[in-house]
Amino acid sequence: MATKRIANQVHKQASRLLREGYIQQEPAWFRAVLDNPPLPLPARAPPSRTRFDTPSGAPLTAPADSKKTKPLPIKYVEDELRRQFFRDHPFEAFRQTTLVEGATVDTEHPIRGAQWRRLRQRGRNPSPEDAIRYAVNLYEHHDMDLSSAYASAVAQFRSLRAELEVARAVARSEAEHLGMEFGPSQVEITFAKEHKAFRTFQEAAAHDHTAETERKRWKAVVEREGRPDNWTKGQEYTRLWKEGVRPVYAPVFVDPQIKPEGLVTQEQATQKISAQADFMKVITA
């Protein structure tokens, strides 16, 4: 016999099948669904709420003439205490907390309810969550109003933290007196890594600047050839052109040469070259 394909009817059908003996053993989900039944259809008729997670002063059910389909807000007492606690102790949010180790659901502490009268019963180094849970415990099991419960939890939390700080300072002083040398703390190690990274950036920038300077230092040096006179706006070039002198821009180096007729000196080679029509200048080595 198939069950109905409606979410809010599955557990009811399973209950009837168990009662008639068609199912010999309860399914694994049966008790959980009975404790938290699904929303009835349509969603405009949500089930009634309890005061456990309902804001104070809010109705437990929506009015019959309400046209809102949004669920009622969920609010716990711990939310208000946690918000106020971290507003009073903002630096507690910066304490190191691992998200990997111990990532399991903690078992309930044996000291709870009416037995939990002092925060120190949970340890000498309580966490912010311990203080918040202690304030809720005072509010629920010791007939204290929320403000008084929060004030008592915060006072005991600060007292235990102060005791722990004093104990650590005394232990450190005793260890240093006996010759113990402590290494850098995690904060100092982190700052050293940051300074090392900054130095690499500075060295890289200095290297780039040096390389750029070296590249700019080398520049082309062009040796101007010809007469070292001032610029004549092309008049000297025009005069030589009219006289039939053809310019030779390449320098001429005259070295002594040995020929069949004998040794040709620099003076003789210079006179021979200067007699040519395209002579402009002879540079001797």
Radius of gyration using CA atoms only = 49 Å
Indicate the structural class: mainly alpha
Q: Compute the average pLDDT.
A: 78
- Main sheet makeup: 2 strands, parallel
Tally of DSSP helical segments: 8
> Could you say which overall geometry the principal axes of the C-alpha atoms support?
elongated
Sheet-strand content, in percent, reads under 5%
Strand order of the largest sheet: 1-4
Pfam families: MRP-S25
Organism: Dichomitus squalens
Subcellular location: Mitochondrion
GO molecular function: structural constituent of ribosome
Fold and architecture overview:
The structure is a single chain. By secondary structure, this protein is mainly alpha-helical. Among the domains are: 1-48, no CATH class; 77-94 and 111-177, no CATH class; 235-284, no CATH class. Helix content is 44%, strand content 4%. It has eight helices and four strands, in the order αααααααβββαβ. It has a two-stranded parallel sheet with strand order 1-4. The protein has a two-stranded antiparallel sheet with strand order 2-3. A hairpin with a 2-residue loop joins β2 and β3 (262-264).
